[in-house]
Amino acid sequence: MNCEEAKSRMTDYWSRSLAGQDEAAFSAHLASCESCRSEVSRVGALWQSLDLLPLEEPSGKVRDRFYEMLGAYRQGRASVELPAPRRWWTQPVWQMAAAAGLVAVGLGLGYGLRGNNQPPAEVSQLREEVASMRQLVALSLLQQQSASERLKGVSWAYRAEPSDREVLEALVSAVNHDTNVNVRLAAVDALRRFASSPETRRAVVDALPGQTTPLVQVALIDLLVDFKERDATGVLRKLADDGQVNDGVRQQAQWALERLQ
Amino acid sequence: MKKLTLLTLTAALLAPAALPQDPQRATVAFSDPSRPKKLVVDMSFGSVTVRGYSGQEVTVESSNRFGIRAPGRREPEPPPGMHRIGPGNSSGLEITEENNTIRVSSGPSPFAQADVTIQVPTQTSVSVNARLGNSVTIENVNGEIEANNMNGQVTITNVSGSVVAHSMNGKILASLNSVTPDKSMSFSTMNGEIDVTLPASIKANVKLKTDHGDMFTDFDIKTDSTSQPAQVEDNRKSGGRYRMRFDRTTTGTINGGGPEIQFTTFNGNILIHKK
């Protein structure tokens, strides 16, 4: 038996459950190994002193008390007593208020202690995670079957970063391909948020000829005017001159041309 | 998938006296009435009416106007000694059920012309797309409602849930008893008026836009003060005109704000009533 095995047997030895061959081997190892012997005697002393503690026997009173308690419980159930008035601090409302208060204090402290330095890495990482979460929500809602859900997706797009290309692409795709007029209208409006990107402007110019719904055409024209997009004059001219196009749309295109020139 | 074809032609040819309003009827059941149900209607011509009722099945009634509005389009007579194989193709309605969605469409022929009246269980989501029809009417249902009409009015009354409605040339008239919280809604028309009645307790962010109309409401709408100033263009020096243009988009909140409701019209007024 080596030291490793001997250590695993020590507990058995102290509790005197070691017998026969195991005991012989264990004793043989102890005889040959100084370190194990000293450990056995050191901890063994503790075990022995534990043995000296008197065993606590439950007194007769424990039994009485138990039945007393059981009786009280039964009585309580039978008489359906009203619950004792709760302390105000145990009420959920107050607990929530306290939690909110602590959060506010924490925020205040954080704000007060914050230096003028750049936000720490964790904060900007958190910000990134929130942004990607918003992106995810917007993108997945825009894929829904229900028009109401897709509209909600468009309103989530307002919370995305103005530099978020995936959300921008999803909005442009909604403007061009969504089957519901109202979703297309909302998506056109949401593109304002992405005005700073030249891609957005390009996409709006490209989207105009493909639209046949007058209301969406008007919304796109308004957007081009707000963008002051001079590259749109060709497309606008075509609309204004096209006899097939709705009169209101043609007037709007004409007006936009005047504005942009 | 169940598939029925409503053949109105035979009846029309055999009984010309009863021709004008000879309604054809079909009944279809949802495969699982306990799950969310949806009705999708796609019609080229004719008016569409969808009405909620206490039953569990969907009944479709079609009054075919074949021979009245389009007398030139009769099914050609078979050549002498020959007979037709299969149904004629000019006036069928197609009804299908798949995955708890019942679709009613004017079938393969773009000239099918029929007014349809459809009864659905009250708890049904309804989506109606009418291209050259007259009016679209949806009443007494509870669910997500989508309506799109090219030419006529869209009337949505006594409903609950959410509404997304568009008409190109017609008016939008909608009245909701209660709204599903957290659903976005939208009402738009190019040339018509938007007249919407909402529950007094509704919480919403509203976005209203009319280019040439006015907006009225009896709700207490808190409008955002960040509206943009008028844009002025002055071309008088170069012989042009002077024009002031206000940004016609108004945003605001009702009862503290909530999901977005959008109202867009180019030429019409917007009226928002409190129920």
Question: Beta-strand level of the residues of chain B, as a percent range?
Answer: over 45%
Overall mean pLDDT of chain B: 79
Tell me the span between the first and last alpha carbons of chain A.
Answer: 99 Å
Our estimate of the beta-strand percent of chain A is under 5%
Strand tally of chain B is 23
For this structure, the quaternary state is heterodimer
Ends distance of chain B? 42 Å
- Helix and strand sequence of chain B: EHEEEEEEEEEEEEEEEEEEEEEE
> What about the largest sheet of chain A?
none
Bin the helical content of chain A: over 70%
Helix and strand composition category of chain B? mainly beta
Please summarize the sheet with the most strands of chain B.
21 strands, mixed
Count the helices of chain B. How many?
1
The geometry of chain B reads as: flat
Please tell me about this protein's structure.
The complex is a heterodimer of chains A (261) and B (275). Chain A has helices at 3-14, 20-32, 34-52, 60-79, 92-113, 121-142, 147-157, 165-177, 181-190, 198-207, 214-227, 233-241, 247-260. With 261 residues, chain A is mainly alpha-helical. The mean pLDDT of chain A is 84. Chain A is built from 13 helices and no strands. By secondary structure, chain B is mainly β. Chain B has one helix at residues 9-14; strands spanning 2-6, 23-29, 38-43, 48-53, 57-64, 93-98, 101-105, 114-121, 125-130, 136-139, 142-149, 154-167, 172-179, 185-189, 194-198, 204-210, 215-217, 221-223, 231-234, 242-245, 249-254, 260-265, 270-274. In chain B, the strands form 2 sheets. Chain B has a 21-stranded mixed beta sheet that branches. In chain B, strands 19-20 form a two-stranded antiparallel sheet. The longest helix of chain B has 6 residues, at 9-14. At the A-B interface, helix 7, helix 9, helix 11 and helix 13 of A face strand 11, strand 12, strand 14 and strand 22 of B.
